[in-house]
Amino acid sequence: MAFGNNRAQKQARAHFQLAGGSNIKFRHPYLAGQIDTTGAVDEIDISACCKLEGRFFEANPNQDSAKQVVLVDGSVVTIANKLLNGTITMPVVRTTGLVATGDFISALQLIKATGDTVGGLLYKTDYVNGKAITKLYYGVTVQRIPDDVSEGNDVPVYNVQLLYAGWIEAVSTSTTENKKKIWAVGNANGLEAYFSPYTTQNNDGESGTGSSPLSTANNGMPDSNLADETDATTNYNTFDSESEKKVTDGKYYPVSGASTFNK
Question: Is 34 inside a domain boundary?
Answer without folding.
Answer: yes
